Structures are given as structure tokens and as C-alpha cells.
Amino acid sequence: MSGSHDNAARQPDDDAEVVPVPNGSRRSRPVRTGEPGEARVISLTRPAGAEPPTAPDMPLLRQRREELRAHIAEGRLDAVRRQHSLGKLTARERLALLLDDDSFLELEPYRRHQAAGPGLSGNRPHTDGVIAGSGTIDGRRVFVYAQDFTVFGGSLGEAHAAKIHKVLDLAIANGAPVIALNDSGGARIQEGVLALNGYGGIFRRQVEASGVVPQISVVLGPCAGGAAYSPALADFTFMVRDTSRMYLTGPDVVAAVSGHLVSHEELGGADVHGSYSGVATVVHDDEQSCLADVRYLVSLLPANYLEPAPETAEIGARDDYRPRLAEIVPAEPNRPYDMREVFAELADDGEFFELHESWARNVLCALTRIDGRVVGFVGNQPSVFAGVLDGPASQKAARFVRFCDAFGIPLVSLVDVPGFLPGVEQERGGIIRQGAQLLHAYCEATVPRIQVILRKAYGGAYIVMDSRSIGTDLSLAWPTNQIAVMGAEGAVNVLHRRDLATAADPAALRAQLVGEYTQEYLNPQYAAERGLVDDIIDPAETRAALARGLAMLRDKRKPPPARKHGNQPI
Length: 570
Hints:
Elements: E1 18-20, E2 26-28, E3 32-33, E4 40-41, H1 57-74, H2 77-85, H3 91-98, E5 105-107, E6 130-137, E7 140-147, H4 158-174, E8 178-184, H5 193-209, E9 215-224, H6 229-233, E10 236-240, E11 245-247, H7 251-258, H8 264-268, H9 270-277, E12 282-284, H10 287-298, H11 324-328, H12 339-346, E13 352-355, E14 363-370, E15 373-380, H13 391-406, E16 411-417, H14 424-428, H15 431-444, E17 449-458, H16 459-464, E18 474-477, E19 482-484, H17 488-495, H18 497-502, H19 506-521, H20 526-529, E20 535-536, H21 542-552
Parallel strand pairs: 7-8, 8-9, 9-10, 9-11, 10-12, 15-16, 16-17, 17-18, 17-19, 18-20
Antiparallel strand pairs: 1-2, 3-4, 5-6, 6-7, 13-14, 14-15
Helix pairs in contact: 4-5, 13-15, 17-19
GO molecular function, one term: transferase activity
GO cellular component, one term: acetyl-CoA carboxylase complex
InterPro entries: AccD/PCCB (IPR051047), AcCoA_carboxyl_beta (IPR034733), ClpP/crotonase-like_dom_sf (IPR029045), COA_CT_C (IPR011763), COA_CT_N (IPR011762)
């Protein structure tokens, strides 16, 4: 703003204290005079001996305030145009899409850095590159900060970090979700260790908030160096193709160290983290659909660990029969199908929110509702690697199970698993440790847990997919269930190796032995007769059985053991 307002030529009283004001001119601080109980305010620019201000001066002050706020909100037009030219929205445009209309309360819009250094002295824009505050999504309170790439490239300095610290502290204190919109060039180099200290304060608060309030991180531009740990600490991370990028060391450093030339997108783009690293929970093609999906996710989450997730009206799921389930899942144990179709049949209105859709695709994790109540689905995916569990799939499911348990969301495990993926690469990659993460997550979960065995459930994979032995509350099975140490073919090869080697007709003998093993050990009643399955249900009854089971378990209370915390095999 210019300093051309009226009274600009007047000089302050020589005895008055002089302070800078936002528009760059210098004006005297107002002081109070008069007898006790008779408070009078001297004009900001009143010469000595002049009369006190009259009512018409107040509109002028309001006007200046509104002009300054409008100037802050408008930003630098050239920087805004450059942001749009990159295919990116501004921070304020993003907040307008994310939050309910007129619900945003901005905190510290006048904040400026107090640092000195190249490019900083005399360059102190308001907000310091981050817009922080609180608003609502469908009427529910959230706290949010949006890094503003048009101001110092969204880089983080001491003042910038302090605003984020405040948002995180308020989210924890008020028990409300926190959403971070990341678009930053990283630490502000001129502020040195103060910037690094600011990041540390963010990370510490995120860990304090873990399991207390949901944390959602949305990467809408660069997120490089140590800043990348913030999305990694969040419960959910969203990214947008072509504009989001996240890595610890950029392409230039990679080229210098390894000689390998790689683009920003190839190194840390949305598809890299959505398909390979697993850091991105959801990937979108544009910011509008991404932020709309964030709003939808919030509708499925509780405000904090002490409150239930928002519920909708019951829709009669306890008497809802779905005969198509028997058509989706083939009776033959080795024929593939898409478990997503099963999810859709079991969910209210066929809707579910899938997490990590492109990473570790042999297991599915989703949030949905059954009869209006939010539940978490974990299901093996027979159409990908026959649904076997490997290292990434175990980690994906383990983190989801832990999130649901932390926030009181019941778990439904849909089991059709032939075992763990064998191989030298898997063993060397730590499949024992990774599988133990899923086992640990289920064993310590205290929320209502229901297991449904659709077809095969073999070996250790059966155990870790929330079996009765590790604490599931209700175990249901279809008539096609096969629960055993291994499949019939594998068992016969192990048990009758010598007989098959000396048989005149090994193929005929193998077929006979497989039939006998199947009849004896893989029949649908085997586990139920031994109390490891509560009921064998018609596939068409699955949705109704789940609704009834969840209603039965609604008031489950199981306090955790008295200890500081367990030692998860991470």
C-alpha cells in the first residue's frame, strides 16, 4: 500500500513514541490521557495541542485496515499469474475449495519474518508464506494451513513455522482434524538453523497429534528435503499428477552423486509415491478433484480419538441380502475375481474410499459405511498375485489397521489368501518382519473386529488376517471356505513324496490323495467344528451378518494393557 493517505504530511509530536505501521509510513503510538475513568485516545497523527479525534476519524482507520487486509489477500499479481501458469491454484483458492463458504478464520495474517539476509532485508511480506487458521467442512471444525508459493516460494522460516506450530497446537487442544496444504521450496536458507528448528517443531507436534486427531497432508507442489517427513508422518497423503513432487534429495543432487539423470516427476512425482514408495495414499489428476476427495474423506473420520466417526441413518442392512456375492466369487479356489466388487456389495450405496489404490495391490484397504456406521475393510485381492501377502501388502494393511484402531473404527477382514509370497527376494527383503507388523497391528487392536473367510485361508497368512487365535471377535465363513496349513496339492506333495515317487501312476495317485485330503481337511465344517469359526453363512447373507455383528459389538470395551507402549516390529 502507498503512504498517501490524508495527514501523511503531518509530523508526530516530538515527545510521542514513534512506531512503524504496515504501509511503511511512521506514526505516533496512541496514548491515553485524562483523569481516571475518563479515557481519551489521541489521534495517531494529531499534532501537539490539537483536539482529540472525533467519530469521523474511525471510518478512516477501518478503511485503512480493510485496504491492508485486501492487499494481503490479493497478493502480488505477477506471482499469482506465475502460479496459475504452472497449472496450480493459489493458497487462498485452495482453501476456498476445501472449506465451507465463509467459514475460514485466518490466524496471524499480519505476521512477518524478523530475519536479515540476502533477499530478506526490506522484503517482509505479510503472512510470511503460509495461510493458517480454521474452518469447517460440512459444518465440522478442522484446522488448516496452506503454504503460499507466491511468497518466498513457500519456503519455511521461523515466523512461517510458528504459525504452523500454532495450528497444530490448536488442533490437538480442540480435538479437531488438521489438514496441511504443502507447496514449498523447503527451508529458507537465509534463516539457517532457525528454519531447521521450525521443521523439528512441526514434526514433534505431528507425533504428539498421532492417534489423537486425524492428520491429512495434501502435496500440491514441491515438498523437498526434510519437509517431506511431514506428509510421511500424516495419516493420509494426497498428491496431484504433474504438479506434486516429494523427495529428500532432488534431481541435481542425484545426478551429482550417482551420475543418473532423472526428472522431478520420475524421482518424486505423484505416481512414484502412489505406486512404488507407498507414501501417497491417494493420487489425483487435478487439484479440484483432489480437494473434493479430501472433503469426502473428512466425512468418514471422527474429529478425534474420543469421538465416534459421523454416522448416517440406518438403511436396513440387517435384512439386506445380496445374492450377487455368490456370482462375483467363483467356488473354485484358484479362479480370480475383483475383491472391490465384494466391497461394493457390502457397503452402503456401494460406496467406499480406497486407500493406496496403486500400491501393494494384492491387498485392499478402504473406509466405508455399513448401515450408516463407518467401518474399515481389509481384503485380499485374488486378481493380483492370487491375493498372496508380501512385504508391502503387509505394511499397507498394518498401517490401516492401526489407524482404524486408534480412532475407534471397527474392522472387517475379508479373507481369501493362499499364503505369503515365497522367494529369496522376499526373505531378504524382510517379509518376516513386515508380516509381523500386520500380526502386531491386529493383535493390539481393541476395536470391534469381524473376519469373513470367503474361500481359501492357508498357513501363516490365515493367522495374520485377523483369525480367531489372534483375537477377532466374530469369525464367519462361506460354504466355500478352506482353512488349512496349505492347499491340497502342496500338502500331498509334502506328505506323500515317497509314495508318489515310487507309484506306477503318480498322476492318478496324486489325484486320489488330493481328493482325500480335501474331503478330510478342507471341508467347510472343519474349522467350525473346532470352534474357530462362529458360523457358516450363505454369501448372500454377508452384508446382513456384518450389520448384525457390528450392532452386537457396538459397546465393546477392551482397555489396553498397562504399559508405556509396545515395540512394533518396524
